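Regression test case RT-17, inverse folding.

Input:
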């Protein structure tokens, strides 16, 4: 597998060959991407070169990648894998947040018994009323699980995917199934369409999972149009808004690290940012990385402990798990000169469950960048702050 830095080095060589002998002139733009085709303009004439198999175009360069579409949209045989849909919707005078997630994992990682396990997690945030509703289930078999076509269904979660981000997502909190005993049922039924192509994180779609040697393939659809219906206990609401989709898979173990924190941010100026960081079992921050996605889809890799700083401002103690979660963050990113304030909608957005307790919450974002003031919305995920039944004995 070629990592991000090696991939970009190879891409520079390819581009040098492509452009050898070309004189762009003062008014000619530099190389750009049209899908996975490099486009250069010489004396007013476009020269187009397709990147070919195993490569994609980013910032006018052809980059090696191990993530291919549509094939990698579906399931794999790695030890851990998940598909995450989160986002923000409006309808009927109400602001909503949502999460629908399917997990597939090596059963032996957690329980020491061969096999495959699945989880379905569903959450709805009524941001207007300040109420969070959630549900989860654990299963030893899927309801439907096929890569031709791409259909993943586990209990009350169903994903129908075309392999290029045009997805139909259904998540159900059944009647009587809301974890905190709140009103139910709820049904999320959304059609999502990508407004940008997928972003491969790590430069080439391959990232480290903490400092334990594990690795993960990872891509996101960072901006998706979302339309559909949220069925509430009081009736159906037609909704529209935006979404974010994450897909990760790899031969790593979730118990190799204590905590994983993740931020997605979608700005009104058309840019997005993803950040993540790991904490080891000694409560030491051991890995940071992320991606800035420009309005045209260009991905700028963030890698290393100096590429951004995240400062939590307060803590919230869960009445369900007694975990202490840091909330509200000031974030600085030197690349792009970002100074951001990420604030939570509702404190209690915890998703406690048998495998791993975590906080998955809708946020708002304000701040400044090298392009001026920025505003937007996001989601944040926090793990490792509440004790889990499946934590290894240390």
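Golden output:
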């Amino acid at each position: 597998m070629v990592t991000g830095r090696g991939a970009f080095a190879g891409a520079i060589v390819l581009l040098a060959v492509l452009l050898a002998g070309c004189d762009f002139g003062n008014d000619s733009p530099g190389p750009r991407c049209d899908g996975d085709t490099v486009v250069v303009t010489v004396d007013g004439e476009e020269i187009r070169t397709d990147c070919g198999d195993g490569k994609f175009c980013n910032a006018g360069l052809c980059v090696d990648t191990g993530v291919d579409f549509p094939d990698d949209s579906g399931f794999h045989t790695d030890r851990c894998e998940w598909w995450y849909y989160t986002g923000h919707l409006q309808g009927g005078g109400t602001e909503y947040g949502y999460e629908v997630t399917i997990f597939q994992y090596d059963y032996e990682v957690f329980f020491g018994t061969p096999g495959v396990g699945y989880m379905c997690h569903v959450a709805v945030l009524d941001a207007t009323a300040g109420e969070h509703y959630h549900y989860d289930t654990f299963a030893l078999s899927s309801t439907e699980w096929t890569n031709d076509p791409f259909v993943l269904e586990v209990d009350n979660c169903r994903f129908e995917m075309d392999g290029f981000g045009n997805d139909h997502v259904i998540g159900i909190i059944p009647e009587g199934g809301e974890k905190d005993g709140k009103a139910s049922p709820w049904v999320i039924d959304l059609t999502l369409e990508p407004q940008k192509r997928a972003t491969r994180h790590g430069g080439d779609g391959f990232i480290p999972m903490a400092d334990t040697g594990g690795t993960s393939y990872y891509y996101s659809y960072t901006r998706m149009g979302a339309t559909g219906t949220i069925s509430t206990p009081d009736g159906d609401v037609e909704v529209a808004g935006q979404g974010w989709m994450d897909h990760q898979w790899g031969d790593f173990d979730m118990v190799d690290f204590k905590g994983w924190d993740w931020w997605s941010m979608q700005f009104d100026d058309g840019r997005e940012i993803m950040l993540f960081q790991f904490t080891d079992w000694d409560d030491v921050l051991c890995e940071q990385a992320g991606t800035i996605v420009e309005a045209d889809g260009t991905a700028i890799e963030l890698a290393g402990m100096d590429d951004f700083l995240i400062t939590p401002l307060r803590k919230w103690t869960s009445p369900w798990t007694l975990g202490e979660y840091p909330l509200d963050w000031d974030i600085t990113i030197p690349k792009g000169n970002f100074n951001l304030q990420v604030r939570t909608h509702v404190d209690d957005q915890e998703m406690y469950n048998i495998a791993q307790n975590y906080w998955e919450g809708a946020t708002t974002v304000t701040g400044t960048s090298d392009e001026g003031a920025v505003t937007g919305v996001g989601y944040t995920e926090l793990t490792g702050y509440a004790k889990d039944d499946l934590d290894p004995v240390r």
